[in-house]
């Protein structure tokens, strides 16, 4: 079975940041009010308002292909034979469109996620990212198949099985698509304005994950919504 993954659209969903931070005028007033007090509890409260912060969305188009042939195999006059039967081939190509979304859940965000130094620098350790396969759909109008004269058509059960294999292949490809790295960058863009409201300079702010994730780690963050 041949598989091809193609990324169609990649975008950061930065509108969420406005819902977490409020307007610029409010931010300037809050920044002045926070000077000289312990801002950590307030910062935690502001960040937890983001709750589940969806940072990145990716559209993936995949074409699942399958082909098989009927062969005549065995021995004839002590010679091995392996012959394709004429018109005994079947092929099918199934296009699948899927949507992936990366988010960070701040519901358990606490002081453990904040590190400060004496020189006024602050580091926000993000909770582990999550990636959802939120939807997948087969474009029925664009399914293409070829069936030889001596073969039967693909059954609904076979097509369903190939479609499921395509979805599983998309999930397996997630660690290679870079969506987690983009989720981290988008989260930083969303959180830095909140932290600046607490009186920190942008150059003193670091937003990071607790570790650099490998492919094995990322597979543990993947969620699949039920249904298609």
Please give the largest β-sheet.
6 strands, mixed
Beginning-to-end CA distance, first to last residue = 22 Å
SSE order, one letter for each helix or strand: EHHHEEEEEEHHEHE
Backbone structural class: alpha+beta
The gross shape turns out to be elongated
State the total count of DSSP E strands: 9
Please count the helical segments: 6
Mean pLDDT: 75
How much of the sequence lies in strands comes to 35-45%
Rg over CA atoms, rounded to whole Å, is 26 Å
* Helical percentage: 25-40%
Query: Can you tell me the residue ranges where pLDDT is under 50 for at least 5 consecutive residues?
Result: 1-19, 21-37
Question: How would you sum up this structure, described in words?
Answer:
The chain is of the alpha+beta class. It is 32% helix and 40% strand. β4 and β5 form a beta hairpin. α2 crosses α5. The model is unreliable at 1-19 and 21-37 (pLDDT under 50).
Q: Could you give the topology of this structure?
A:
Blueprint: E1 3-12, H1 15-21, H2 24-34, H3 40-48, E2 52-76, E3 79-105, E4 114-116, E5 122-126, E6 130-138, E7 144-147, H4 156-177, H5 179-197, E8 205-209, H6 215-219, E9 222-224
Parallel strand pairs: 5-8, 6-9
Antiparallel strand pairs: 1-2, 2-3, 3-6, 3-7, 4-5
């Amino acid at each position: 079975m041949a598989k091809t993954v193609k990324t169609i659209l990649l975008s950061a969903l930065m509108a969420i940041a406005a819902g977490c931070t409020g307007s610029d005028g409010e931010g300037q007033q809050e920044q002045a009010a926070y000077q000289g007090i312990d801002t950590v509890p307030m910062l935690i409260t502001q960040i937890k308002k983001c709750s589940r912060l969806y940072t990145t969305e990716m559209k993936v188009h995949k074409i699942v292909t399958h082909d098989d042939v009927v062969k005549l195999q065995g021995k004839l006059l002590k010679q091995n034979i392996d012959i394709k039967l004429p018109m005994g081939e079947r092929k099918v190509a199934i296009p699948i469109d899927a949507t992936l979304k990366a988010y960070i859940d701040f519901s358990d965000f606490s002081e453990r996620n904040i590190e400060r130094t004496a020189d006024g620098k602050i580091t926000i350790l993000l909770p582990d990212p999550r990636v959802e396969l939120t939807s997948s759909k087969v474009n029925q109008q664009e399914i293409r198949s070829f069936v030889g004269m001596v073969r039967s058509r693909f059954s609904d059960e076979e097509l369903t099985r190939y479609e499921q294999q395509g979805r599983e292949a998309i999930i397996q490809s997630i660690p290679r698509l870079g969506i987690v790295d983009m989720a981290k960058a988008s989260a930083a863009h969303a959180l830095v304005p909140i932290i600046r409201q607490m009186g920190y300079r942008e150059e003193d702010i670091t937003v990071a994950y607790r570790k650099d994730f490998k492919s094995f780690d990322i597979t543990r963050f993947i969620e699949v919504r039920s249904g298609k």
